[in-house]
């Protein structure tokens, strides 16, 4: 019937590789064929294994790219990826420099930028956020599981977090973390700590500052 899908497997009798092949046959109202001929050229098993591994690697990369693109399409706006900017106010941002990075960090840092959001008429920020572009030199993907900010007085605050996707092995990715409310009024410079979902690989960034929003007069 038109549109009907039938899975067909053919097996070759000569004992060479590949030993079989599988096809999906799809019914068509005007282009039907009563006979399907299958030809194949035998190839060494090591060649087939290499092609299989390459196909699996390509499929994994496609899945990672798809997840990244979907996340970018759904990225919210404002602080925490523009998620907290939902009313009148002032958002300030600055590129972070003079940062300290322990040698034991599991990730490298490509770029860091901090943000603050101050509602109109107020002098203290209602929320702050940090956006990082991180480099993963490891052989396994790195998935953000938690984040905390320690201020100059030693007070530690757990951060909300948002990430585009797990940072791929030998690749790069973006991470956004932040806090909202009275707890945003921390004394800086601060220390930012990130840790992964499984395993001991952590990332620490010292001397983190947040910009001061410049309010305009009435």
From TrEMBL:
This is Uncharacterized protein. It comes from Cystobacter ferrugineus. It holds the Pfam family DUF2381. The lineage of its organism: Bacteria, Pseudomonadati, Myxococcota, Myxococcia, Myxococcales. InterPro entries: Mxa_paralog_2268.
């Amino acid at each position: 019937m038109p549109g009907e899908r039938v899975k067909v497997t053919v097996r070759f009798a000569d004992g060479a590789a590949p030993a079989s092949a599988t096809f999906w046959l799809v019914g068509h109202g005007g282009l039907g064929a009563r006979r399907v001929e299958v030809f194949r050229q035998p190839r060494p098993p090591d060649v087939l294994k290499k092609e299989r591994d390459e196909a699996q690697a390509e499929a994994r990369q496609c899945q990672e790219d798809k997840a990244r693109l979907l996340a970018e399409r759904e990225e919210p706006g404002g602080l925490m990826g523009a998620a907290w900017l939902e009313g009148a106010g002032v958002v300030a941002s600055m590129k972070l420099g003079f940062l300290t990075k322990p040698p034991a960090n599991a990730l490298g840092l490509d770029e860091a930028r901090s943000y603050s959001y101050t509602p109109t008429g107020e002098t203290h920020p209602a929320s702050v956020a940090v956006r990082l572009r991180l480099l993963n030199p490891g052989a396994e993907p790195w998935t953000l599981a938690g984040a905390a900010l320690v201020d100059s007085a030693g007070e530690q605050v757990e951060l909300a977090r948002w990430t585009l996707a797990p940072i791929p092995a030998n690749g790069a990715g973006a991470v956004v973390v932040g806090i909202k409310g009275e707890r945003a009024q921390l004394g800086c410079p601060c220390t930012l700590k990130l840790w992964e979902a499984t395993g001991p690989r952590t990332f620490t960034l010292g001397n983190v500052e947040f910009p001061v929003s410049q309010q305009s007069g009435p």
